[in-house]
Input
Amino acid sequence: MEGPWVEKYRPRTLDEIVGQEHIISRLKRYVEQKSMPNLMFTGPAGVGKTTAALALAKEILGENWRQNFLELNASDARGIDTVRTNIKNFCRLKPIGAPFRIIFLDEVDNMTRDAQHALRREMEMYTKTAAFILSCNYSSRIIEPLQSRCAIFRFLPLKGHQIKERLEYIAEKEELDYEPTALDIIAYLSEGDLRKAINILQAAASLQEKITEDTIYEVVSRARPKDVRRMIKTALKGDFMDARNLLREIMILQGVSGEDMVDQIYQEVSRLAMEGVLEAETYIKFIDSIGEYDFRIREGANPRIQLEALLATFLSE
Amino acid sequence: MSWTEKYRPSTFDEMVGNKKAIEEIKEWIQAWKDGKPQPPLLLIGPPGTGKTTLAHIIGSYFSDKLELNASDKRSYDLLINIIGEASTTRSLFDDNLKLIILDEVDGIHGNEDRGGVRAINKIIKESKHPIVLTANDPYSKKLQTIKPACKIINIRKAHPNSIVAYLKRICQKENIEADPKILRELAKRSHGDLRSAINDLEAMAKGEKRIGAEILEAGEKDVFPGLFDAIRAILKSKNIRHVREAMQIDEDPQLLLEFTAENVPREYEKPHEIRKAYNHLSRADIFFGRAKQTRDYIYWRYASEHIGVGVALSKDETYRKFTRYAGPGSLQFLGRTRAKRQTIDNLAEKISRKLHISKKVAITTFPYLKIIVEDEKMAKEIRKYLELTDEEFKILKGKRKSRKTGKAEQKVEGADPPDREKQTTLLQFK
Output
């Protein structure tokens, strides 16, 4: 069965993985030795952390890898207790038809410090039967004791040409008709994130028989959270209630997180300044405001209240 | 004309309450009529109890009236020139008495109305005409020298029932069908200030055929007792003690923050007020964050001060208007959209499992998937692969018409694209 291209063209082996050569060669050494330490994969989104973990598990555990591999997401599991119970239940059993078991724990940087300490104890308890692969975007958010128990691999954003090569490979398999420059644009816009690049390519392919630069720009502009620009403009007009309603709709119905929202507001305010809608003086004032509330979101308890306060700073007299 | 003007009583009989005071006033008028000069009347009472109205009704018993109120510039000269002259000059006929009305004498400003109090005393002493003075604060220093020379009449707040009756009469004349519950609530809120009750009624009822109890959001009021009173104090008052007292309620402070935030833009109208108030709410939220991170709930008290006193002081002046306060729109929105959000969550969960990503990342791929499923073939594949239900699929598919259907049909049937068809027709016409 063929899913979205991000899954359909996910590399199944370590050899197939794009970029990250220095990491892949070390991982292959583990496969040869049929043993591995606890690992920590850190790096931005869409650079191959999960793909590397899956491919490594497959190659090192052999044909029974599915039964001996547990994939958990730290931010989705309902609390650390769920994570611990899952790990415990999984590790209690001996590996079946494999030398050991592997637990892949994604987004560890979203765990609280307490939870990370608890995780450290779990890791020590099952050193004989299981190996852990921890994955995160920022290793700075991981407590020292966890870092020191892992071999750390830093995944780098993919280079433009690496992304383009992969897109060309997919385009060939899917028999796509495209302008070569369109792929350059995708590589540029995806900022080293291959998942995003492939999603853009597939979206473009569904829009047009022949993929052109314009197709790509259309995809990217349509994929932006809707109404952010309208929300900002409404605030600029001084209509706070309507702007606030839009904010709530975007956050609650489109499920956009507080961080993403700040990011979108920043991008949109920049665009408005480039288009001359915002004067330079206002622009720099707004940027300072956005930065301040970006910071406050991290400190505060309720991101939406902070964003509503940010909107209030955009109101004109 | 505002309703407070339109329905201002013009006779003693129409006045609300204060029967005894009115009897005394009538005797005072009669004495003047009988040629017996009386000391000035000093009507003292809280705002909106009818002092000015009474003064004007009294005026209707005399041949003329002369009024100055707090908004006039009452300098010494001004008072002496206008009132001094009018009060000492009397016509030959005794019944030609002019009533002098000095409104809100305790409102005289020290600097602006330099010598104002002195002037009033002089006028009281020299006047041969009847004088009525009004004041709010019986203990005002400015009244100290005036009081001994006057006959003092205390005007009391109207009883809620009298206010309800008055409001009901207005509704009848305006042809408005009003729920008695609303009138009672307005009366209660007014704290005896009939003027504010009428203002509130006008704000919510002018131009309406009927006003139902739902306008007060009585339901929510029952769910959160005290909460709306706290909100009202925060948004209407600038008095620190008053605000802090009203906030002594047994409610989750984070809920209080939501309620306050919701109503800030409903009450405050100036952008800088909203900005200031929201900055305090933002600061409060930071203290909530600190409490959460450190599990030290001592930080809550700083949050509370930001929500209460901080927001209260963010307004330039108290708005004299009726505001319909509401429960947090965000919570209502969350409630209304629960089913849809559940579906979105399920969809994210499925994508998360199949694509080895977290739900948060899954949601960021929605925009691309939405475009991808515009292609019917891809839509089918993805739907099958992710094992989506009709509802879940609809989140991606939405109401947008598929653009690719046309493309697919062209392929199958080999028909010309519509554009080219048009061109052909044009060519033929040529």
Notes: Chain B has four domains: 18-154, 160-216, 222-332, 338-399.
